[in-house]
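Checklist before submission:
- one chain only
- standard amino acids only
- sequence pasted in full

Submission:
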Amino acid sequence: MANTKFIFVTGGVTSSLGKGIISASLAKLLQARGFTVTIQKLDPYINVDPGTLNPFEHGECYVTEDGAETDLDLGHYERFLNVYTSQANSVTTGRIYQEVINKERRGEYLGKTVQIIPHITDEIKRRVKLLSTKGKYDFVITEIGGTVGDIESLPYIEAVRQFRWEFKNRCMVIHLTLVPYLAASGELKTKPTQHSVKTLLEAGVQPDMLVLRTEQPLTNDVKVKVANFCNVQKEAVIESRDMSTIYEVPLEMQKEKLDEFVLSHFGIAIGEKPKLTAWKEFLKKAKNPKQSINLAFVGKYVDLKDAYKSINESFIHAGAFLETKVNINYIQAEDVNENSSEEFFKDAHAILVGPGFGHRGFEGKILAVKYARENNIPFFGICLGMQAAVVEFAQNVLKLEDANSIEMDRTCKNPVVSLMEEQKMVNDKGGTMRLGSYSCKLIKNSIAHNAYKSLTIKERHRHRYEFNNKYKEIFAKAGLVATGINKETELVEIIEISEHPWFVGVQFHPEYKSTVLNPHPLFVDFINAASDYKRQNKS
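Returned file contents:
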């Protein structure tokens, strides 16, 4: 930790300005210069983790290698940096308070009154420092969720203030704020930024740099005005305009010299500008596809695209690799019925049934699987999507009476998807699923084996229910084969239909491991299969 530099990214005026993307972009630029970087997210909500939050409210729950249920911003960090994050990279107010209360119960504060200052702020600072002790990082970037001025954010801002005094020249604050454009007057308005910085100053924190989100280019006069009012150098006022894709942001931040100012702030030689050749090549392919395919995406949270953020990004990564544009048609699972299936899927070159929990929309997912199976359309089922494929096959091919998942019907006669044995005594909902990375052995010459080009893989999980192995033999005889098995538990990880051009269901979440520079092989193979289907059937 002796030489680690700490960068805090705060936000003002409104949420969803893109603190995560700015943090990841800065990290990418520093990484490209040869520095080791990690990013941490401090979230002000009192939930211990996002695992129990509704995806409609918070977007997807991202899962790390070590099984942490985290904010979706950690997905951005991994996709940009191509480096794994961990439990230490995601901290919530709930986790902070839980740790402090546990210490108090253990008697570690005997004789002391436990307070926000110093106990809560000390725990926040400990969490920030933790990353610098776990690995040899040149930079630790800490993104603080929410907006400056929020009641729940105050302890974090106070911790930043204390941190700056403790580490002085090894600490920096970047404040992301908004400069709205008023079309009626044709003006960019700086007052929201001024008020946001004023609120930060009232908390005792002077930002070193301002990143201004704007729809219109900032004039030199606007930058000078903001710099003067906010006590920063003009060079420290950075423009961040809306881009067509988040992957353009690192290049725009490079043009704005974001990384150069950071290095100069810490007294580090700037050196040669990184070329980012691979990144630029990815963007070139993503923007100039040579072909396109139509994907029908069936899910229960499709009204909020962030609920499936990692899946959406995985298609961008794989699509760019194959120079193929993936046109995604999002379909609400509840809307799929016998009468609507043909209309929904008639133009699809591939069908994906997404993950989720609960019975809502499950029948629609089963019908989507049925359509893909009967019409030989490439099919990909993820987590609950795989379980829907198992139930569909049991009902319509095996003709098993009352076949279903235990999750949907606890009294069904043929529970082809059952509750995992270790889950049967679990009552708490938070952090109790099968989480994190587990190994899987593949059957030779299966679709999965041909895609991965390996017989052993490791993937991340987030589930309670599993394929019921009692039915494995009769499924296999009818053509649905388990092609991926966890050898320690005999859990079925992957199913395929041998007589189908491309029909794969996976219990894990491959989308969590797809990055810009390493698109996931299953998504690549799935898009290839869709392209083949299009050429053969709908060219």
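Reviewer check: DSSP finds 18 helices and 23 strands in the chain.
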